[in-house]
Amino acid sequence: MFGEIAAVLVLVVxxxxxxxxxxxxxxxxxxxxRGAADRIRSASAIRVGVAYRDAGGHIIDGQFTIxxxxxxxxxxxxxxxxxxxxxxxxxTSAVHGDADWxxxxxxxxxxxxTGRWVRPEPGVAFPFDITTLLNPTALARRxxxxxxxxxxxxxxxxxxxDDQIRTxxxxxxxxxxxxxxxxxxxxxxxxxxxxxVIHPAAxxxxxxxxxxxxxxxxxxxxxxxxxxxxxxxxxxPIAIPPYVAITPxxxxxxxxxxxxxxxxxxxxxxxxxxxxxxxxxxQAPGPVAQRAVxxxxxxxxxxxxxxxxxxxxCSWTVTVTNTGTAPGTGMLYASVTPGMPLLTFPVxxxxxxxxxxxxxxxxxxxxxxxxxxxxITVSYSAWVHSSSFGPDPALPQRLxxxxxxxxxxxxIDPGYEPARLKLLDQxxxxxxxxxxxxxxxxxxxxxTAIQAGMLPELKAIADxxxxxxxxxxxxxxxxxxxxxxxxxxxxxxxxxxxxxEVEQAAEILRHDPRSELLxxxxxxNPNTRELEGSDILDIVNKDAYQLKxxxxxxxxxxxxxxxxxxxxxxxxxxxxxxxxxxxxxxxxIALIYLEPGSDRWHQYTREEIEFRLKKRSKQxxxxxxxxxxxxxxxxxxxxxxxxxxxxxxxxxxxxPC
Length: 657
Hints:
This protein is of the alpha+beta class. The chain contains 14 helices and 29 strands. The protein has a 10-stranded antiparallel sheet with strand order 5-4-3-2-1-11-10-9-8-7. A 6-stranded mixed sheet has the order 21-24-25-27-28-29, with helices on both faces. A 3-stranded antiparallel sheet has the order 13-15-18, with no helix packed on it. A hairpin with a 4-residue loop joins strand 24 and strand 25 (543-550). Helix 9 packs across helix 11. The protein is flat. The chain starts with 28 loop residues before the first helix and ends in an 11-residue tail after the last strand.
């Protein structure tokens, strides 16, 4: 038995608290759909929960109120941290985001635009035009298009609630609606036409108009009373093209009025003129255009005059030039080995400014032997530790010794630069001095992760210093956007979401200061001498995590595969010789993501999941033939949150262990 999980990260989509269970159908599907469409079309405004995720794994959650005249107010959140307020009107929008939210989207501009209203570049606030696709009229039209589609009653007609729910399928889109008197559309989900998605520029583009935008990711609240989270950080990508899940709720004039007021405060030009005699709306300072914010970065370039010396005293100088676009400060370090001890010079240069050291002299270290010319090889060294590089003055030199010059990296915000350099140092620090073989791939891997919107996760891992195999991140981050194949409970090699493993590792490290992790690592079994491991091993808390992602109806096979792997039911890997198996003494935790593509399982409550899994209990291989549990914890994650069953809870799933 072990304690409850405190740091819980979940994705909650939508505003409706419906229970999606069929009782009986009292109206035809077409009539119910028309009724649902009419309720939305005639509403003064609708509240919409929308979860968007693309094939690369980027996830964004929006909660909006949209009026009939296309005004929007709401929030956009990322599951592992990051939140922004959003207003939209008259073809323009403004966002007010925190640091993590901007770090996922525009890592060059974070400090310059955090905590202020900004008119974002296309695709930054949300990947598609909210008003075009989700306004009451547009949403009602989409529902109208379903009225002639094939429909199917739910196969499970248990009387769990009084809701009368019908499933309608039109192509790849699925709708769940109430056929009772309310005639509500409960949920709508399907693939989004890629032509409707706005793709912002990657952060490393160096054109004159680049704002350093990266795609977004996703997060939710955590509870601090006990660390050591055991919950998946996020869903795996589930479909190509992008997938969207929508939960709409028609609302009245009060909500519409509140939205108009919120928009008018920030975008007064987007709101209708106030009636004569009406009180004016207080206005905040006007939003700044994201494109107009040009954050500068100092970049220090060094040249020195070191040369062969044949005099008793040798001399050299170092010239430092700020080739960046903003003033910068730092410390110049210079030494000669053997010969001259480390000297330091403060550097404070405007953009384009130059500093030249005074001549640095040292005795010629070549031995003096009468009648002979002697020589000795010396090493000249000079580097600048910029104030944006963090507190370790030796870090730039360590990286340079392994082929990574911090001053040549793509600029990011100074608030995140120390973490990037620290992570690179951890990734290549095991190499001997002078070994530059991993420099290019390590930098490219980190760039890939930043471009994928994972800068906050990289910071969490680097700052913790408790990932025990950081060198393996080079491969993980390079492949992290690879997809889990839709409907496949056991993805092919290199296709399981490395992104999910990295995100979950970051989440554990963030919330448990004791944790020490191996990511896809292994330890030696002292009895068998085999290498045993899992997706994540917490070697302090003795937890072994196996992650799976489910689209379609393959949730039971996914559970079984995770359980099989945790118990060593497969052969060791033919290359690494690692067997997927929880080491002796480790708790076995199976984490299963129920994706939107898993249809209504994506929306089920804990009680509904238990009700349905009981009917499939004989198919689940969680108990052995003697009635012993094969795992210590099962976690299923869907739009309703994280549902956790410890050993003592397995009876609720109909399991005899």
